[in-house]
Amino acid sequence: MILKISRLPVSLLVARSISSSIAIITLTALLHSQSLPKAPGAEVFALTPQPGPFTEPAIAIDPNNGQRIVAVYQDNAQASYSQDGGRSWKSAEGVAPSNYKVSGDVSVAFDRQGHVFICYIAFDKLGTFNYWGHDASRNGVFVRRSLDGGVTWEANHVPVMEQPTQPGIPFEDKPYIISDTSKSRYGGNLYVGWTRWTLTNSQILLSRSTDDGKTWSSPIEIDRHPGLPRDDNGAAEGFAGAAGPDGRLYAIWSQDDDIFFTVSGDGGKTFSRARPVIHTAPIMFAVQTLERANGFPQIAIDPRSQRLFVTWSDYRNGDLDIFCSTSTDHGKHWSEPVRVNTDPAHDGAEQFFQWMGVDQADGTPYVLFYDRRRDPLNKMQSVTLARSIDQGRSFQNYAWTTEMFDAEGVFFGDYTGLAAFGGRVYGVWMEKPAASQAASNKEAGAANGSELPKAKGGTVVKVGVADFSGVEK
Predict the structure, then answer these.
(1) Which residues of the chain have a pLDDT value below 50?
(2) CA 300 from centroid of its chain's CA atoms
(3) What is the DSSP string of 36-89?
(4) What does the DSSP assignment read for 202-271?
(5) 36-467 — its CATH code?
(6) Domains in the chain: boundaries
């Protein structure tokens, strides 16, 4: 190849270089700012009008009455309820335990009787940073029940596992509650899975209740082998589960840059040997403005076809993307991962903190996530809802919110939440309000005795409602 030396004036070459740079920047901005259709019937409600240290929410729908929804969040454990399909919300009282200083890592589930359960950890202080099994205080995993759809909660919480104050105790962390609402022989069972941190490793444990949450079995370890002992990549954490219409209980978590999977066919008494089914990039990471934006996996099931769906996020493409894989044979084989977010690959925009829910009436999968595609600087995010009408092979993205917000300086925790029934979809997430509002409330929640990371200026918890009941598939 013969190279030709340009004889153009230097000023013209510089001008062309600047022009090319502007074109590249403009193209990048256009890619990032692509508009999305608004989610049909989209509404957003603030559960915490005043900012505070509110994070890690979850949400559930009563399978017997789609008008009853409960959302939970920390810090400490709190709950809000709706009895009119998400059109109005009220805060419940008496949810947090009175005998512990801190409660959080909340999840929520309705059983087939319409009773609702909140699950949380409680402790007095954390151990060593990210090494929670070192110097842990008394702690445990607890469940509290409501018989009226979250309006009132029973006075006493029930320990799933409680560690007394003594040297060398483990720290129980990140529990998630699952309800079997099927008509199978195991219908009515409740399950809680979580991570146990010890001085030397991390384990995935599971306990079950067969008497409406009144008592819980001794926990069993369901991981294939323990993970590393720090709350970071390589640990065994991010438990999620789903109960099928035949009573099978499926469980997943993240470990060793893999998603591990196991299944129980006897109501949680025993499990198959856990195995890695999906290889991921590291699933714990930081993004601009946020030190923690984990991609823990979720699993859900289509109650009609029994197709399994798993979602997670990782940075195999450089920037963070949301992925989905499916199985049609009870988890024996899994499809190649599909990108859930529809912006161009490698465009530098981050999508993170996803949560998935499958409509328990029609089997449609939905995914909620924070989305930075509209910000060319990749620092601000809005909330996007994804929906698949071809069983997870592809996804349409919808804007659930259009106003972007900056999350710098706040703690977002590990979770968002999503639930769907009969075409109505409910998501719950955190936002950092405008700087002026946050500044005026920066001390909110600072005196509650919590050792959890504090939100500087505070966050608010919001619930989004979307309605696809009239949208053709």
Answers:
(1) 1-33, 436-456
(2) 13
(3) -PBPTT-EEEES-SS-BS-EEEEEEEETTEEEEEEEEEETTTEEEEESSTTSS-
(4) EEEEEEEESSTTS--PPPEE-SSS-B-SSSSTTS-EEEEEEE-TTS-EEEEEEETTEEEEEEESSTTS--
(5) 2.120.10.10
(6) 36-467
CB 164 within 8 A of CB 172: no
The CA distance from 171 to 235, in Å, is: 14
In angstroms, the CA 168 to CA 192 distance is: 24
**Quick one: tokens of 455?**
């939100």
Strand residue runs (E) in 372-459: 380-387, 396-399, 405-406, 417-421, 424-431
Separation of alpha carbons 174 and 386, rounded Å = 25
pTM for the full model?
0.90
Grouping H, G, I as helix, E, B as strand and the rest as coil, residue 316 is strand
Question: Whole-angstrom Cα distance, residue 222 to residue 270?
Answer: 8
Residue reference for tokens 């949301």: 322
What are the tens digits of pLDDT across the range 350-365? 999 999 999 999 999 9
Cβ distance 292 to 352 under 8 Å?
A: no
Which DSSP state fits 254? Answer: E
